[in-house]
Amino acid sequence: MRANPVESPEALDRLAGTTLASEPFFLAARVSGQGSGAANRRLAELGLKVRHYSVLALACSDVHPTQRELSHYLLLDPSQIVALIDELQALGAVQREPDPRDRRSKMVVATAAGRALYRRAKKVVDAASSDSLSALTTEQREDFLALLRLAAFG
Amino acid sequence: MRANPVESPEALDRLAGTTLASEPFFLAARVSGQGSGAANRRLAELGLKVRHYSVLALACSDVHPTQRELSHYLLLDPSQIVALIDELQALGAVQREPDPRDRRSKMVVATAAGRALYRRAKKVVDAASSDSLSALTTEQREDFLALLRLAAFG
DNA sequence: GCATATCGTTGAGATTGTCAATGGTCTTGG
DNA sequence: CCAAGACCATTGACAATCTCAACGATATGC
Fold first, then answer.
1. I need a labelling partner for A122 at 20 to 30 A (CA). Which of A2, A116, B64, B123 fits?
2. The pLDDT of residue B111
3. What CATH number is given for A22-128 in this structure?
4. How confident is the model at residue A86 (pLDDT cuts 50, 70, 90)?
5. CATH second-level architecture of B22-132?
6. Which range among A46-55, A141-150, B5-14, B76-85 shows the weakest confidence by mean pLDDT?
């Protein structure tokens, strides 16, 4: 998630053949870092970061996630979810609603404004992912997504 | 990179079908987070983190990377590379050597002790990656690696 | 009912990320 | 050759993020 110093290609060529380049966790970190870096830069104009975007996306879904579920899903500490939701709530994008099944937990749901914001944000995020993956063909992207899903869950 | 709260599966099942689960950057972040989390936990017994491991791996290669190259490759700020190498140097694992081509930059090379440490570290990291990817067949892992490489560079 | 576990929240402390400034070195144009 | 500008490692300051312990409120199992 750096400021993108134009990524000098010489260094990459020299290093891309090392054994480290065969470690999935390292490659995943690079993909993730570049991807969310690009997404963050574009989301800045909406006053969001990928963290907010992720929460907003789930709040817009029909599953009405609990804060604890967001924590597990996004691999973030519950206290960070609190702060994130406070911010999104201050933007009028989401609300906390009581969970009918458990009065300890709160469901996070998007407001109409939140859903509108999400639609705009999704466009810039999709654009960012798209040119993060410009080296892959359409078919490769589908394979990649399927394998990522398998690796991410499962 | 959390403490691994046993990842309650119910939440994942409910949320894995949302549109967010189709965003490559999000999936990559999850894979990366889980993978380096697991690796970090195992590397702790060697007094290392994945950051150190990554630097050490490159220092053990035959490319003799420059600190600036490490910075580009690992997506870390140059100042963080300084700290990382200070620590590895304090462990006697790496050395800074003058770059014959450019006296401004310094090459980072592993010592014999550093290479021995790397071999031990690589075992635990490989074990961690292996069970991070336990949901993939051997063939799928190869495809996944190839696609990751393409996405990470390219 | 009681003991124990979970949920959201708060707060503190450590780690990491980001950025500006500096001295030393390279490179380029004149 | 020289001067201007760029690049490298380093330092230091600050912001963002992570990690953890504690708390009141609620749930669950005995």
1. A2
2. 98
3. 1.10.10.10
4. very high
5. Orthogonal Bundle (1.10)
6. B5-14
Contact predicate A8/A47, CB 8 Å: no
Q: In this structure, is the CB of residue B128 within 7 Å of any atom belonging to strand D?
A: no
Chain B CA closest to residue A6:
B72
Q: Do A72 and B30 touch (CB under 8 A)?
A: no
What does the pLDDT read at residue B16?
Answer: 81
* B50-64 confidence digits (pLDDT tens): 999 999 999 999 999
Nearest to A117 by CA among A55, A75, A67, A68: A55
Closest by Cα among B150, B140, B31, B145 to A36:
B31
Out of B1, B26, B75, whose CB is closest to A33? B75
Domain ranges of chain B: 22-132
Contacts of B134 in chain A (CB under 8 A): 154
In chain A, positions 120-139, which contact chain B (CB-CB < 8 Å)? 122, 125-126, 128-129, 132-136
pLDDT tens-digit map of B8-28? 556 677 778 899 999 999 999
Percentages (nearest 5) of helix, strand, coil residues in chain B: 65, 5, 25
CA–C1' distance A151–C24 (Å)? 47
Give the whole-angstrom CA distance, residue A86 versus residue A81: 8
Rounded to whole angstroms, the Cα distance separating A32 from A41 reads 14
Give the distance from CA B109 to its chain's centroid: 17
